[in-house]
Structure formats: C-alpha cells, structure tokens
Amino acid sequence: MPTQEDKLAVKMLVRARDDYQSMRKRMDNRLGRKADGTAQEITERAFRTEDALMFQALADNAREQERQVEKQLLSVLKRFPVYTAYLVHVKGVGPIAAGWIVGEFDIEKATTVSKLWQFAGLNPGMVVGQKRVEDGPDKWHFERTDTLVRGDKLTPEFVSPFHQRLRTALVGVMADGFIKCQNAYALDYYYPYKARLEQEENRIYGEEKAWKEVSKARRDRAAKRYMLKMFLKDLYVAWRTLEGLPMRPPYYDEYVRAPELASHRA
Fold it and tell me: How does pLDDT run across 75-91, given as a tens digit for each residue?
C-alpha cells in the first residue's frame, strides 16, 4: 500500500511540473511564442539574436523538464490502487489531474463525499468561517468564528474554505478535458444540466435572476461544477472501497430521498 511519503512525492512532482510550466509559459510569452512553439502575431518584441537563442533555450529546457516530471509522476502514481484500478480508466483524467487528486485529497478524512466537494470548492452552501490569527513571528493558527461564509467563494478577512489550486486544476482544466474528450460525465451530466439551466425559471438563491436569465458563461460554469461533483461522488465510492473504508451516502440521498421513498412505500 502507498505511504504518506508516496503521497508527498506525488504532491511535490505535481507542483514542480506547475512551476516548470509557469516558467515556460512566461518565457514563451515574452518571446512571442505560442504553447506549440510557433510564433505569435506580434512585432514589438525584438531581441539580439544571441539573446533570443538564449531565451529559447531556457524555455525549451523548461518544456523538457515538464516532460521529465510527468514521466516521474506517472511512475509514482502506479503505486496507488486508486490510480491503477480506477482513475486510469476514466477518460479525460491524465497523470497531472490524477496527481492533483491523489496528492491533495485525503480519502481517510473524507468520510462523506460532501467533504470532497467542500475541499475542492464545489459547495455553494454556507460553512463556518475561519480566520488566521498571528501568534508571533512566523507563528499562527486558524481560529473558527461564529460567522458563516460561502463554501465556494473567498470572503475578505477569512481563510479560503477550499483548496484554491485544486479547484483550478479540476474546474479550470480537468472539466474542459472531460468535455473535449466527450466522456461519460460530460454526456450524462454536463450537457443535460446546462440544457436544464437554460430553461430554469426559478430564482437563484439570494438573487433576483433565474438561471435562464444569467449569462451562458455562468450556466457553463455551473454545469461543469455539477459534472465534477458527480465524478467525485463516484471517486469517493471507488477510493473508499479500495481502501476498505466505510461509506456514507450523500446528504440528499440519506436525509431527503430515502425518507421520501420510505413514505411512498408506506
């Protein structure tokens, strides 16, 4: 079974890959190059030939480091049953997305799927806000307050209630991958949910508009979040099963749907 050291290795490799990618993108942009290495349509950036070659070499080196890190990440991921037995079979989940999932989620602490949703910034409900309290130079702790904040938004003066980089990796990258490859989650959840919101006349909680009245981009983001929640629901079951951990059904299934079904049977 994988150890905490294995999990830390995944986390380090994913973040190292992000660092190299960020450096490569910044250098390419300054050189006027696209992600594939071809030239952008700009003329204002001019360098001496020897300097341009030096900058290109730095960018190319960062690109090669990205590739090497991805190879190393794949070899470490193979130590995790949730990757070899489940994630590798989900179309649209590559080694980088799998690395974020394996490296950042703690499936032992995630006793319910709702905890995965909250950690990934997919819970629009209210949660107890926390603040960072300074104890002295380089010393601090988090302190729970009596204030409720949105579980999927940043609130001034409060600690983020979710993992910001993880949400970017899932919502900003992996969700688009699901749609691009037209996997089952996109077909079964993203498109139907977006179509439903286009016709939804009920008012959005706390707002004056109905979903049908908001922008297409907002409905698109909402449909992506719903698709990811359904993916994480399946991941929760698969992962907890592989680890031999007990599972609880989602709140709606346990406290709303089950009583409704029981009353109908009665």
Answer: 999 999 999 999 999 99
